[in-house]
Amino acid sequence: MTGQVDTRHFRTLFISDVHLGSKAARTDFLLDFLRYHEADTLFLVGDIVDGWRLKRNWYWPQGCNDVVQKLLRKARKGARIVYIPGNHDEFLRSFPGMHFGGIEVAERAIYEMADGKKYLILHGDEFDVVVRNARLLAYLGDWAYDAAIAINVVLAAVRRRLGMPYWSFSAWAKLQVKHAVNFIGEFQRVVAEEARRNNVDGVICGHIHHAVMEDIEGIHYVNTGDWVESCTAIAENHDGTLEMISWQKIGNTAEIKALPKPQSVEDMQAA
Ligand SMILES: [Mn+2]
Questions:
Q1: Rounded to the nearest whole angstrom, what is the distance from the C-alpha of residue 119 to the centroid of ligand 1?
Q2: CA–centroid distance, residue 193 to ligand 1 (Å)
Q3: Which of the residues 2, 112, 191, 237 has the least number of beta carbons within 10 Å of its own beta carbon?
Q4: What's the rounded Cα separation, in Å, for the pair 244 and 223?
Q5: Using alpha carbons only, what angle is made at residue 17 by residues 13 and 20, rounded to the nearest 5 degrees?
Q6: What is the pTM of this model?
């Protein structure tokens, strides 16, 4: 099949975990994706730039500039772009409400789809500590849950001060292969619970590099995946329905290229 790929237009697009500045970032696939997909609103759901990686070792090939230019051009042409920082680009968290080049920065957002359903949009790293200590926290109760999230924020800041890399959920989960599925399930459950606390119908997050759309006890849990391995985005159609798009190809063809597996611990730590 070599059929033409037409540009598709959506009400909203959600992408996350591009990790620009890391060698694992698939800027080639992302650029191609952005070429064929337009939206009125584009949410960048965190870890778009890998500030942690860049601080240690500056790596910024032309592909990274091309992605940034493409996004800025979309903003100039009238798309609303909202950047929700993640743990790897948390330097932006100091600037909520800031605008740069037509891009708004917000810590999290509540967004209404065309069908009236409301979604909480956040990156998700604040729940790492809850996932890792799920059993203990369940035993200690609600106060410990809130305290754990607060402590996670402080610990991340301390680690950053000391120049230590951010603890990586997906690298850690991959190393604990036997338990990884449980950890992913626990993350999804905790994030869905946060959506329930916010009285919304669903949640769209990133962080764990595990793209999925599913119902979790009445909450629509949606994860955007990443542009390191899965190369996925979530799109909202004009009727409010959501779909997952996987884009591991280049050029105006239907050819799908196999993605190489991450080569090193460095790549895995991109998460
Ligand atoms: Mn993250």
A1: 19
A2: 19
A3: 2
A4: 9
A5: 110
A6: 0.82
8 A C-beta contact, residue 204 and residue 120 = yes
75 CA distance to ligand 1 middle (Å): 24
Percent of residues, the chain, with pLDDT higher than 90: 55
Ligand 1 mean position, distance from CA 2 (Å): 36
Determine the distance separating the centroid of ligand 1 and the alpha carbon of 170, expressed in angstroms: 9
CATH fold for the domain made of 9-123+201-268: Purple Acid Phosphatase; chain A, domain 2 (3.60.21)
Cα dihedral 55, 57, 61, 65, rounded to 10, equals 0
Q: Residue ranges per domain, the chain?
A: 9-123+201-268
CB-based contact 25:59 (threshold 8 Å) = no
Give Cα separations from 28 to 65, 74, 249 (angstroms). 12, 17, 9
Phi, psi of 83 (to 5 degrees): -105, 110
**Nearest-5° angle of CA 149, CA 109, CA 23?**
75
Higher pLDDT, 156 or 7: 7
Cα separation of 225 and 15, whole Å? 8
> How many other C-beta atoms are found inside a 10 Å radius of the C-beta of residue 14?
30
How many C-beta atoms surround the C-beta of residue 164 within 10 A? 11
What one-character DSSP code corresponds to residue 14? E
Distance CA 23, CA 232 (A): 18
